[in-house]
User: Fold this.
Amino acid sequence: MNATQPSAGKIMLVGLGPGSHEHLTARARAAIAEADTVIGYVTYVRLVADLLDGKEVIRKSMTEELDRAIEALDRAREGKKVALISSGDAGVYGMAGPTFEVLFQAGWTPDSAIEVEIVPGASALNTCAALVGAPLTHDFCAISLSDLLTPWPTIARRLDAVAYADFVVALYNPKSGRRTRQIAEAQRLFLRHRDPQTPVAIIKSAYRPKQRIELTTLEKMSEADIGMLTTVLIGNSNTFVQNGLMVTPRGYANKYAVEDGARNTRDGEQAGRSLSSGLDGWIEDIRQSGRPAAQLAAEYRLPADYIASVLNEPA
Ligand code: SAH
Assistant:
């Protein structure tokens, strides 16, 4: 590129984290500083208002996602550096997806003159978890209860699957003015698989002035004060609450007994080795049991054809 050519524009997808400046990353701050134009939902623009002096600011409503992306591309084509700001991480229920869709439709590729940078931010599940203890220390997933773009049967099927599979779950977009029943349906699906006493954390406006945290149970969660800015964390079958903290243990069949600060292995386990119920140990077990796949399938709650194919492999 030479001096007579205008420099090509850039689109930065900037995750702001939960909204407090302490949790805005250094790169996010620098990206906003670098930008000529900042585009975002009104609330997000307000969160970083003091960083916007001298910049063009385009405020959009929640439903104008594609417009925001199109506007960003237009500005970038004019040679501007554009920061598209999202709360949390821009790739988690945020602007990153719609932006790439718009870019691809316009024929953009990573080799095009317009550069695209994604600046990661702490998502609501990270920040909300940090406020209540250690709820996500074992396998977890996120489900959005918003049925504006996703059919309810799809959402319900996912809720049912992860409740059955004993994931810790972070529910995004749990409730809004018009969508009030989804959270009750989620509860109903979870109660089919999980204990009514399963710990649930309701975190509202994490790291913002109106922050509110409530620890409750699966049975009572739909009575809680839940809104647009709330994330709901539902524990798995091992999650517990102690001293006001929600904790999901790292191990299922706890490998170590911790005594006097020393780590001793439980019966039959060796320190640093995988569990006898790990993959190799389990395969050996089911082989030696001599039991039919259908019976093992019921015991382990796994598909019979999967067990059959494992058993049929040469040892
Ligand atoms: N990109 C965002 C998610 C956007 S979807 C992220 O990565 O966090 C909007 C949903 O995010 C809200 O309905 C709520 O469930 C959650 N959320 C965002 N900010 C939050 C905050 N400060 N406290 C609690 N939940 C929040």
In short: Residues 69 and 99 are 5 Å apart (CA to CA).
